[in-house]
Amino acid sequence: MGQFTHRAPESLGPLVGKVKEYQVETIVDTLCTNMLSDKEQLRDISSIGLKTVIAELPPASTGSTMTANVCKKITAQLTGAIGKQEDVSVQLEALDILSDMLSRLGGTLYSFHSSILNCLLPQLTSPRLAVRKRAIIALGHLVLTCSGSIFSELTEHLLTELKRNESTSTTRTYIQCVAGISRQAGHRIGEHLEKIIPLIVQYCNVEDDELREYCFQAFESFVRRCPKEMDPHIPNVMGLCLKYITFDPNYNYDNEEEEEMMDTENGEDEEQESDDEYSDDDDISWKVRRSAAKCLEAIVSSRHDLLQDFYRTLSPVLISRFKEREENVKADIFSAYISLLKQTLPTQSWLPTSDAPGKDDIPLTMLRNQVPNIVKALHKQLKEKSIKSRQGCFSLLTELANVLPGCLADHIPALIPGVVFSLADKSSSSNMRIDTLSFLHVLLCNHQPEVFHPHIKSLLPPVVTCIGDPFYKITSEALLVTQQLVKVIRPLDKSCAFDAKPYVKDLFPGTLKRLKAADIDQEVKERAISCMGQIIYSLGDHLSTDLQPTLKIFLERLKNEITRLTTVKALTLIASSPLKIDLRPILGEGFPILASFLRKNQRALKLSTLTALDVLVKNYSDSLKPAMIESVLVELPALITENDMHVSQVAIVFLTTLAQVYPSCVSKLSGSVLAEIFQLVHSPLLQGGALSAIMDFFQALLLTKTATTGYSELMRQLTAPIHSSGSAGESVTLHKQAYYSVAKCVAALSSACPKEAAAVVTQFIQDVKSPKSSPAVKVLAFLSLAEMGRTMNLSAQRELKTVILEAFTSPSEEVKSAASYALGNISVGNLQEYLPFMLKEIGSQPKRQYLLLHSLKEVISSSPANSLKPYVEDIWALLFKHCECPEEGTRNVVAECLGKLTLVNPSELLPRLKKQLSSDSPHARSTVVTAVKFTIADQPQPVDALLRGCIGDFLKTLQDPDLNVRRVALAMFNSAAHNKPSLIRDLLDAVLPSLYNETKVRRELIREVEMGPFKHTVDDGLDVRKAAFECMYTLLESCLDRLDIYEYLNHVEDGLKDHYDIRMLTFLMLARLSTLCPGAVLQRLETLIEPLRATCSTKVKAGSVKQEFEKQDELKRSAMRAVAALLTIPEVEKSPAMAEFSSQIRSNPEMASLFESIQKDSASLPASESMDMS
């Protein structure tokens, strides 16, 4: 029977989906009646049955009426049962089911909300605490979906009751209820905080520890849920937390000295004694301290902007409480301090740190001054019995060493005994050892080797013992630490007096045993290989007869698919050791294995193998036989392809090494490898590192003096596709990028063979002059002259100037721009001859001005500052003449020239730009602002300090009356926020109102244009709005901590309803915001979801053009991506609007398939990203 009764309610679930609606209602009726029965078993079964039914009901959005009807039936019965108050267990079950129903189907019960509220409120004064607790949970689910008026009714009731303060017991319940509501629906309680907080503050001072605990829990939930509304109350709440975190009325901490005496006398029974002597079973003051610590952690983690205050007031108090006697409280105090350290971690490591020695470093300095106190408070605890508090100490110290590398250098002697104790102590748990080892690893990585040398003797043995530990996780951590210890014992990059030899006998056998073992965890295998690699690299000369057998093991590991990658990396390390380890015994067999890896379909393995081969060829050239080299050469052509530029680059770098070390092998490799390389040069994708690798390789080839790869042969193959395209037969059209690549290679070859260069220059000039030459040939000739002219003086070529100026009138745009590029770069090679000539031409030839200004831009960008200095005044005067040019293209080039010229002598020229801001001509103002944009670079440079002083003046143009000036001001602001945030971080308060102002749609800028029979609206303000939203997006990445995120979200909400381009941008912003500040987004979900829903459900008018369909598709995809991002926010499922929307997505086939494809995309993303990292 028992078995059957347990299965019965479960089978109701599937039944609900199958039977008719009225039957479900009958089932529910029966269950409800049975719930009120006297028989306990029947009651239990019925309540399980009801929960099952509720879980199976279809969501309201599917349009089924059944759910609504069933819910109404149940609700009426439940509220009745709760109100009757006869049997507590019935009440508890009923409250439980009601909570279940409200959390899943709250919206459906809309008409019942007020009766549910009236039924729940009296339960808050129930004599049974369990009933109160469940009533609070049910209210929490109710506030998610109830209307504003019901929510206000509830808060009013709570406020009245809190003011009445009938008994401490009910006051506790009401405070718990407020906290519960705030946890569930923080965004709604925000507006009532003004009234609530003073009441709770007042109850903190009542002598009742449980009440205080609930007060702090309420504060904590306010801080996390309503950060904006809590802002004015933070100082007050923080003061209370700091007061009560030290609240321990039954214990006397003053006798620190005596305590130490006790420690030494009776270490064993010390714990028990203190328990009997001090602790009353009813002392619950620790709960107050714990809730205060948790509240502090919430404040610290949400208020990055108050860091300095935290270090002034909060940090010393927390440090003084590290001595807390209650383990659970201590854990929370540690956790609050770790939170503080995490906030201090210099954010965004990708921004240059030298960038801003301003505000952001003060907290670090304050922390540095408190390190001695932290160590003093912790180092004794590292030897305490309690594992939990030791783990807490190590987590805190680990975080500290990460935030301030090197800060523990003076305290190593105080910390090492504790580390050794935790590693050697028999009672330490596995996790305790792992935590200790990982702290030691961070410590070794972040401090100078010398500080550890006095302690190696005591540190090494326990670490080596851990290598032998049977638990693989401990072994694996210990191997990591040992690898780091080896670097510390003998740092090869500097001279060191410490003698490492005596320690080899400790280190080597333990690691070797793990290296030999075949039946161990994969991670241990890999770390044993890496650790042994480090030992051989650093201590190989002390291993004598052990060295060769160990290398043989490496050879075995190289043959195993699972360990080969790690072994390749370890061998690379060993081969680069300054100790010149003798690898001859394994090279004969190892080299062909490495060669075979180049065929494998594992990208990381190819790359690591190429690096290994490169090091081996450089350092072991005399031990390699020609046959070994050939086995590798065969594999290389397949690796050089435009499909993977990085692998190609590494392969070409290796070829260059081969050409330098074994010139004789070049004759064997010419054919296929060269063909692949030329194909790469002609590829549109070639740039950067791979291109310079090819140029180096060509130069190395020429130096081998091999007949088949001489200068003229290489030149012929380089330029062949361009020259052949002129003949009528075949036309090979190359991408524009390829011309630049070929020209750069031509220049590289010519600089390696200066004897040939003159003839080639003459040939190029003939190409340009000849009327038979195709535009392609002319373009290549000009670009090659440019690349050569930059480094050599071409003034011997008399007719060069006229040839270039003639080309300025060519019908082909490509030829014109190549000629202008050439003039600029040739001038760089010979300023005194060409620059005055160029300036004269700009002044006298208005028709060619644009091209000549482009040449000037090349000169300014590529010449060293000192050589430009004599000409600055002339250039400046000339540019200023043109800064009011009506043609925007010309103005932009002038602005770029002005900006880059300013960098030559910033202290003199930047003020001149600033003066120009007051010009009456909007054109002139926009030119100056754009010029400033070109002075901002992502690398530190001398102009920064000056810019910091005056960028505020340039940003005032965000309020310029002229639309275009405002647009370029936004572009300049965006560039600063992206490349050098420190320039603008402190100005944001002044700048943001102007920025937000530009996100608004301006009716007066929208006009109607008649195009034949149609009227077409044009919005002149669109570009400015777009620029403003782009700035907002950039600020998310670089200045998030300086933004009032709620104000920011207001403007994002507007953007979600704007023009296509802007909606696309705001969808991206929303996705970023979901990860960066999920709490704020959660509060605003209701208003954010509406525009997303609207976008996802729009239909394109039938008969629209194809572009319109594509545009809408793109919009929907982008909106769906934002929805997918919103769904990753923790606790988002509690929002009724979101639940409603996601069920709408699921039930609409078109939206559902779109959503699935987005999820697939995002699932495949991280994988491909992580691959590229390798």
From TrEMBL:
User: What does the entry list under GO cellular component?
Assistant: nucleus
Q: Where is each TATA-binding protein interacting (TIP20) domain found?
A: 983-1145
List the PANTHER family.
Answer: TIP120 (PTHR12696)
Query: Cross-referenced Gene3D superfamilies, in alphabetical order?
Result: Leucine-rich Repeat Variant
Localization recorded for this chain is:
Nucleus
Q: What is this protein called?
A: Cullin associated and neddylation dissociated 2 (putative)
Region: Disordered; residue ranges are 257-282
Q: Which family, according to the similarity comment?
A: Belongs to the CAND family.
Source species, please?
Calidris pygmaea (Spoon-billed sandpiper)
Q: Name one GO biological process term.
A: SCF complex assembly
